Amino acid sequence: MTNEAKTTQVAVVGAGPGGYAAAFMAADLGLQVTLIDLDPNPGGTCLYRGCIPSKALLHVAKVIADARDAEHYGITFAAPAINIDKLRQSVNAVIGKLTGGLGQLCKARKIQFIQGRANFEDSSTLKITKDSGEAEILRYRYAILAAGSRPAILEKFLLDSPRVLNSTTALRMDNIPDTLLVVGAGYIGLELGSVYATLGTKVTVVEMAPTILPGADPDLVSPLARRIEPLIHKIILNAKVTDMKEAKNGIKVTMEAPGLELRNQVFDKVLICVGRKPNSSGLGLMNTKVTVDDHGFVIVDKQRRTADPNIFAIGDIVGNPMLAHKASHEGRVAAEVIAGRKVVFAPRAIPAVVFTDPEIAWCGLTETQAAREGRAIKVARFPWQASGRAMTLDRPEGMTKLIADPDTDVVLGVGIVGTGAGELISEGVLAIEMGAVASDIHLTIHPHPTLGETIMESAEIIFGSSTHVYRKK
Ligand code: FAD
């Protein structure tokens, strides 16, 4: 049944970090806002089945690893006893608190939140269908499309088996399998693979590319590759899964790599982490003027306006990098544009963080990208063996590097591998956004002993004299 049409100034479809940030901004700017999502509260992939549950689990993995590493100081603990039900409950409690809090923030801002599936009827009308089957019509002046993305599947092996997981089902932690094959060594595969491996699963990772984390600078990846070697049972590179069958005792997988064929390897579970696809189908976009590219990403301009003048789009649905903080910033820009502000989404740097142990983080120009573009750069690397703080933490494997323009010393990129890299990278992002030169960083007094000093010292290396690194003239 469809009730009489409601109206709103701004309808936001999807309440992930893009959608709720857009809705909150629009409401703060005095607009009347309706926010629609399938889940009972705002949060989206990030809070319900992405960033937050994965980071809670990675924290647990880090606690276990740190306890194990304490042996270095002569302190030993008993092997961990894992209560999987309690673990699951505590992660769910975090999700509940955060999403509930966002629900409260919606109410405080007088945003109308509707739980249901939105479908575009035309360029100014949405039909929202609730779980009960009841539908309502919402007419809007502007819409912000923030429907996000979903895990990509291996089309050839559409195995409808509870033994085949994606990131969403893997995060549910139904049990700790004895063996797990992770297909794809991108950041999600490695983060989830590390969690399961630390909890006791024998994890194998298979990756088509010649390296884990394809696309990241190799010098940032090497310390991670070395550290996870004893944790992950096997990493098979340059390899493709060519067959997957359900068997009585697991999933039988055949993998092929140059000169190698691994036939019928049996795993308790297989976790597919081969990327994410935009949720642009099934939204009725054909009833609007919105256009999508060959990969299904919605095409937008710098203000995040689609080809339909009434509709904006933000977040994962508009393309890479598919990251929560990018989505939020785009959302706020779209809301500001709707409110009449002259703003564009034009970041100089969007940070990327891989929350493995050690973490890897980078922002701005990477060495890989500079090489691809044939761009001249100056690179300074500060090894963490020379950092007092890294030594006190017994984590000297890290490295901080600064990429600068060879003529002007303007900071173009920062890359960090090491414990806490994700917290450290923001200084690099700020430097790039502010157009800082390397001397701005090296003349900024950093507190001692901290890992932040490694950024200052990498800037000192640009000028040939770092206190803790001696280089022969
Ligand atoms: P989403 O968060 O995907 O939200 C879209 C929302 O739209 C969803 O709630 C969906 O239910 C809703 N929706 C879809 N269709 C409709 C419809 N027709 N009607 C109504 N509602 C609809 N990013 C980071 O920055 N850092 C991390 O550490 C990180 N870790 C991740 C770990 C995992 C395991 C995964 C899967 C992702 C991770 N990400 C991380 C990526 C991050 O979650 C996404 O980039 C981010 O959530 C995108 O935000 P969004 O608002 O564009 O869309």
Task: Please tag this protein with its features.
binds flavin-adenine dinucleotide, alpha/beta, FAD/NAD(P)-binding domain, 25% strand, 5-stranded parallel sheet
Determine Rg (CA atoms, Å): 24 Å
Task: Indicate the structural class.
Answer: alpha/beta
Number of domains: 3
Total beta-strand segments: 22
Total number of helices: 13
| Proportion of residues in extended strands | 25-35%
Mean pLDDT: 96
Distance between the termini: 80 Å
Instruction: Kindly state the percentage of residues in helix.
Output: 25-40%
CATH superfamily of the largest domain: FAD/NAD(P)-binding domain
**CATH architecture tag of the largest domain:** 3-Layer(bba) Sandwich
Short description:
This protein is α/β, with parallel strands linked by helices.
Overall description:
The mean pLDDT is 96. The chain starts with 5 loop residues before the first strand and ends in an 11-residue tail after the last helix. The protein contains 13 helices and 22 strands. With 473 residues, it is α/β, with parallel strands linked by helices. A hairpin with a 2-residue loop joins strand 12 (240-247) and strand 13. The protein is globular and about 75 Å long. Strands 1, 2, 3, 4, 5, 6 and 17 form a 7-stranded mixed sheet that branches. A 5-stranded parallel sheet has the order 8-15-9-10-11. Helix content is 31%, strand content 25%. Helix 1 (17-28) packs parallel to helix 8, helix 3 (51-69) crosses helix 4 (84-108) and helix 3 (51-69) packs across helix 6. The chain has 3 domains: 6-150 and 277-338, 3-Layer(bba) Sandwich (FAD/NAD(P)-binding domain), CATH 3.50.50.60; 155-274, FAD/NAD(P)-binding domain (3-Layer(bba) Sandwich), CATH 3.50.50; 352-462, FAD/NAD-linked reductase, C-terminal dimerisation domain (Enolase-like, domain 1), CATH 3.30.390.30. Bound molecules: flavin-adenine dinucleotide. Residues 13-19, 36-39, 44-46, 50-51, 54, 117-118, 146-149, 167, 188, 279, 283, 315-317, 322-325, 327, 355 line the site of flavin-adenine dinucleotide.
